[in-house]
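Reopening this one. Same input as before:
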Amino acid sequence: MTQIFGNYCEGLPSSPEFLIIGFSPGSIPLRQRWRNNGLSADFMADYLMTFFPDDSCDAGSAQRQAEVKSSVSYVANELLENAMKFNDERANIPIGIELQLHGSQLIFVTTNTITHDRMEPFQTYLERLTSSDPEELYLEQLEKNALDDGDTSSGLGFLTMMNDYAAKLGWKLERHTDRSEFVTVSTMVQLPI
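Same output, byte for byte:
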C-alpha cells in the first residue's frame, strides 16, 4: 500500500550533486538529538554553498547566497525535527535526510517510520494541508497557538515553508512489507532557488 499526498514526485532524474545523512534512532536521547538537528541543518546549508561561488564584488550575489543558505538551514531543520519527533524508535529503522541540487531548485527528502495506528490522523492532517489555502491555515494555526498555552508544537513548519519559501511539499506513505505495523513516511520539499 502506497499513498501520495501533495507534490511528491517519484522518478526524478538523479542529481550528480547530493548529500545524504542518516540517523540511528535510539542511539542518543531525543532531547540531545534535538540540539544536533540545527547542526546537521547548518552543515547541509554550508555544504550546498560550495556550489554557489562567492562573488564578493557583487552585493546581490552575496545576498542571494545568504538567502539560499538560510532557506536550506530552515527547511532542513524543520524536516529533521518532524522526522525525529514523529519517528517510532521501536522500528529500529534509520531516519534519513537527503538534499539534491537540481538546477533552479533543491529537493529535500526525509524518511522516518510511524506505526500503522498513527497513520490515519496523519493522513487526515495531510489531506487538510494539501487541499486548503496555506495562508489561511497559517493564520488559523497562529490563533490556535495563541489560545493553547499547553501545546508545545507550533504546527507552523510546513506552512512557513509553503508561505515564506514558496516550497512545494509532498508525502509518500508506504507500509513495510515485512513489518506491517510500520509505515515509512517520506516527506519531499521542492525549494526554488
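So the earlier flakiness isn't reproducible anymore. For the record, The chain has a mean pLDDT of 90.
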